[in-house]
Every structure is written in structure tokens, then in C-alpha cells.
Amino acid sequence: MTTPAASITPPTLSREILKWIQSLDLSYSVKNVRRDFSNGFLIAEIISRYHISEINMHSFSNGSSLSSRKDNWHLLQKYFRKHSVNITKDMIQDIIGYKPKAAIPVIHVLYKHLTDREIIQKKPVHPPAVEMPSFARPTKSQKLKDEGRSTYQSSSFGLTSKKDPLALPNTNRRLPAGKPYTADRSQLNSQQSGVVFKDVQVKSLDRNQTRSRLMKSASVPYGSASRVNTAQSHTSSYRSTGSMQSQRGANGAGIPASPGAGLMKPLEAGFGADLGVTFNGEGITDKLNQIVENILSKTDVLSTLDEKKLFIVSFIESVDTIEPEFTQQVFTAIKEMLPLHADVFLHHPKEFWRFTSLFASGLKIPDSSPNFEEFVDVFHTLGSILTQKDQNSAWSLFDDFALGKLVPIIQVDTLKRRQLLSVIYAFSADDPSVHMSVIKSLQEKLQNPSLFIHCLSHLAHLEEQFSPALVDIYMYYSNTGLGSSSPKLRAAALAMLYPLVDFTLENIQDMVQSLLLPMVEEPWWEVRAQLLVLSSRLLLQMSQDDPLTSTLYQIINLILSENLTPHVYTIAVSYLAPCLTMHPSLTFLYTQTLLNGLSEQERLALLEQDPDHVETLQLGASSMYEIVSLPFAWDSLLVARSIVQIVEKEDIDQFSMAHYDILEACINVAQLDLQERTSTTDEWFAIFEKCKGHLFAGLMDEENCEFASNVLLQFMKVLGEDTLKSALGGVMKLTDMIFLNGDAASQVQDVMAGFLIGMYDLGGSFASSLQKYSKRLVETQQVGDGSALGDFLLHVEQNEQV
Predict the structure, then answer these.
(1) Fewest beta carbons within 10 Å, which of 49, 264, 563, 569?
(2) Which residues contact 590 (CB under 8 A, 6 or more apart)?
């Protein structure tokens, strides 16, 4: 959601803001903006530095639970309203929900409010264009050659094999060894009127002679006209064809053996002025060194870097040992620099090679490091910039100079695979035909059919759009993987089908009976998880009356009846939750899985999240799973009903903690269901009537009394005074039993007193009924001073006086 403040705020914290935060001497340093500011504790501490009398830090909790975050921001909202600080509830909800970059506009608004200073937005400086000197301009002959090259049309991508949709026509057919190609001159002469072809004698070059000539060519000074013209020739060729073919040697090797050989030349002083960018003799490495030196020179970090290496190289090698606030500044400065150097990357491949070689090495750090995401983001930023300028050249550069560096990491590190593949797509146009070429190039470089299918399972989820030809590619390799003997490969093949459901539903439906149902017996956890995920996706496309749904129900029943790993249970309840509305017959089995398949910690993690919360669970080699907030994905009335049905069927005398957790989650969103008229008050009241006895019994239980109290109060709050007539008699009887007639535990007494106070605070008939009951207790003098019930009576008395 875009707010007025967010629309004018840059996406990262500026250096000015970072220095300001450091100067406040907070209780702990900011390492992750999204995480550290989510609970509002640091925000309160920042305000307290300016208004210490209005912010009492003892009232704020530095916890990470949802309740702690909400309580802290609730206190801060009072300050915001009092001082007219333009921080809205939507902005606060985004921060509480860990929305990326949500804290930045709030910090900027606070900075302006507390310091009364505006944030200066620095505009990028574009160096003036310098006219190219005469000796560096291409000659007329050179222009004619370049124009000739630009007319070259590369062979189009075609699917020539019915078996493998990625098979390309063999445009570079090799001749048999020892049989040089000879043409029939007489036939050629007869076809060309007035033209006679003569044989040309070609003298072969010795390899040593060829190398000595290359060395002489490389020894030409960089300032000479011949060297500049050569570089300019390569630039024109690269831009006109959009590929590296015209720059490759006679041996077709592609990338030169040495980065300094062949077409790649260092930038000259003033070279590239025709692009509007000048370097004054400095290349991209020099610029990166300057950024690292300028930012770290004011700290002690610079002295810890390896003196024998360039600043940028040493920074990348030791990035995880540097304070996050400094690494973030360096990465931000580098990403801000990239738009100014885009033309240089496109025109001078060596600079692109240098940059990607440096940052590809940074991708080898552990994926758990926050700096890994920064390295990935640098590639994403560069790919987006270059693709917007020149799609063909952007992909050709990446394919020739960077893709080979990512492949070894993709091969060995499964947890990085999805992000690295997203980097590859960042350098290509978002077009199915282009992505087909990218997939073909990746297949050639991987040289591993199994690994290629694993990569396709990720790429399928990264596709923004599909064409029939692209769908055919994924379907072909999915069928190939399903026929494999490797369970991991079969899991990858299943993961590939999930995003294809909208585009080839009938073909996937045909596979359910013949391929998917027999795979239920597969013991490998990831195959079972992918079967549940794919079945849930298919159910969302079909009604309950569809003949195929019974087979999908069978698959789900068979899998969930097994003893599964906790992760598979988590995936199952998350992906099946949206299916319950269209397929209510699954609700009973679904609720049993919630009750029995999840631990308390796992269950609460799924139930106590914000509506828009989506967590990515990265497991195995084939896919990533999106875990959602269950109460906002399922039909809460159906789940609450199934709780009652299970209790009645299994004759359960007392609710477990899982029953309370699920009921509370259901009733918490019941108010939204009532507003949207997806359920009625009568339906929820019927559930309350059936649960009421178990909830009252829970108030007497020392372990569960607090959970029972919360659920009862939530029912009363949502259903209103309809519950009063049904529950008031039981509440007063229960109060007498706990405080007057028995020896209830102190924990039970404290919770019961708190429940009475909460019920009184609902107001209306709740308050008046409990007020009369409190007067009767006072008149009979059955309550001693200092007891928990006395706290309730005191609360009522104070409110009567007000």
C-alpha cells in the first residue's frame, strides 16, 4: 500500500539518516532495518532522545512476538496523534508485518519531525558529452564493414525434434576430419553471368607465428589510433548484431582465453564520450575501489582489509566480517552507480566481465548471510537496467561472460538455486520466446540432464507468462522426470506442473489417474509434499461435483493418513486451506491434521500471523513452498464446526490446547465473516452453545484456564449480548465455585478475576449484569481484602464512580 510519505521516500536509508541514527547512541545498532524496527522499540528510543518526558521506555517491550509489536506501536500512535506526525495505521501495519522497506518512510517522517530538517535528495550527475577526437572516429571503410555486419540475420529459434523441444537446427555443421570443403568452380561460374571464380592459394600459418603476431598487436600502445579504431570496430559489431558471434575468432572459441585478449580493451581517458559517460582513464574496478574507500575510510574497517588486494576484492572476501550498516552503505552506493555506467557495460564487454566476475565470487558466501541477498540484488539491478536499454546485448553479455560463473554454484548449492536462476532471468526480456533461448543456453552449460530438470522446476515458478511452445518444453521435461527412478527428480517434475495448471489443465488432469495416484506409495517426503501441493492447485480449478475430485480426495486422504514429517504437515494445511470453501468434505480430515499433526510451536506460527503474511519455506532441491496465515485462508465457520464434530464423535471431555488455539483463530476472523455475510450470527451462536460447557470446564483447569478465558471473551465480543443470557448463569455459578465454595488454585482465581473484568469492560448489558452481581457479593461480605475477586469488585466500583 502506497502512502503519501512512501511516495516521496527513496527505497533505502540515505547516508544522512544512517549517521543520524548512529549519533543517537541507541541500545543496539541497526543491522536489519526491516527486522530491527518492526517492534517499535527503537522508534520509541529515538523519540525519547528528543522527548524523554513523553516516552517512558519501561512501557515498551523489546520482544519479537506479534502481541509485543502491536502493543509498542499502539503506545507510539498516541504520541503520533498528539504531535500530528503523519504516520498512518497502514504504514504501521506494514512494519509489524515485516513488509520490505516499510520502515524507511516512517524513519524519514520521524527524522523530519524530530530534527526539523528536510532530506536532501541528491540527483545523479551526468558528465557532459565530449566530442570524439578525429583519430578515434571510424573511417569510411570501417563504416561500410559495420553496415555489412548489421545486415547479418542470425538463425531463428526452431523446434526441430519431436522428442526434445529444445533441439536446435545444426547451423554449425562440421566437416569430416581430413576432408576440406571444395566447391565446383564450373558450376558456380555457370550460375553467375559474367563472373569467373579463380582458385586462391592460401598459405597456412604456423601456430607460433600466429601467437607472435597477436603479441605484437597487444603491445600497441592504448593511446594509438589503431588500437582505438579496433576497439571502436568491436563496439559497433557488438551493438549491431546483439551477440558475441561477430567478435569470436576463427576457431569459434567464443570467450577469449585471457580476459585481456581479443576484443576486450581497457577504457581510455575520455573513451566512451559518445555515450555521455567518461572515465578519465578509470575503469569499473577503480570506481568500485573509490566507493569502498570513501565509505570505509571513516571507520576502522578499512585498516582490516588485505593491503595486498584491491579494496573491492578484499571487501567482497571479508564482507561477512564487516558491520552490516557499512556493507549496506557500500551496496547501496554500488547500485546507485549502475545506471550511470550502463552504456559502458553494453559497449565494452571487458568492463562487464570485470564487474560480474567480482560480484559472482560474492555469491559463494552462505545463503543464510544477509549479504547474499545484497549480491543477488546487485545482479537484479544491473540486469534490469541493461535489459531496459538493450535486451539483446544484455543477454548476450550475461550469456558469454557471467552465466558460466553461476553454473558451478547452481550445481552444488540447492538452497541458492532459485535466487541464482532469477538472476539469469533478470538479464533477459520477459518474453516466452526469449526465455526458451535462455533455457537452451542453460541446458548446454549445465551438461547434466537431472540438474537441468531441477532448474526447470524453479524456472517454471519464475515465469510471468507462457506460450504454447514454452508450455510444451516444461511438459516434456516434467514427463521425463516423472518417469525417472530418482524420487528427487520425480518431486522436481511434480513441482514443474504447479504453475502450468492454468495453461494446460486438461493435460495435467489426464495424468492424475495414471501417474499421480500410483505415486502416493512413494515414501520420499518431497514427492508426498508435491502431490499435496499439486492436488490442492487442481481442486481450486474444479467443483466438488467434478468426477476427478474423488481421485484427488483419495490422494490427499492416503498421504495424510501416513506418519509424515512436520514440514509436510505444515505444507499440507497451508495449501489445502483455500480449498475448504469449494470442497467442504475435506474439512474434517483437515481439522484432524491441525489437531494431531502439528506441534504447538508450528501450530501457533500458522495461526497467529497477519492477513497478508506469506512465509517462504525452502526445503529440498526442487521447490520453495509459500506458507500463509491459515485463519485468513480457510473458511473459519467450517473449521469451527469440524472442531465440534470431532469433539462429539470422539466423546472428548476436555479441550486440549490445540482445540483452544484453533477455536480462537476461527472466532477472531468470525467478525470479518459476519461483515462479509459469509456466515450468520445464528451459525456461530450454535457453535458457542456446543462449546460452552467445555469452555467453562477449562476455566477450572489450571493449565488451560487462560486459553478458555480468551476464547469465551472473544465469543462474547463477536456475538455480542446474544451470549449473555446463555452464559451469565454459568459465569456466576463458576465464580462462586472458584472463590467462595472451593479451594481453587491461585492461577485459576487470577484468570477468573481477569475474565470478569474483561466481560465487564464489554459494556452494555454485560457491565450492568456484573454490576448487580458485584453488589450482591459486597452485601453478603463474602469477599476478603486483597483477593483476586476483590480486584474485580474494585474495578467495578472505580468505573461506577467515573
Answers:
(1) 563
(2) 573, 576, 577, 580, 634, 639, 642
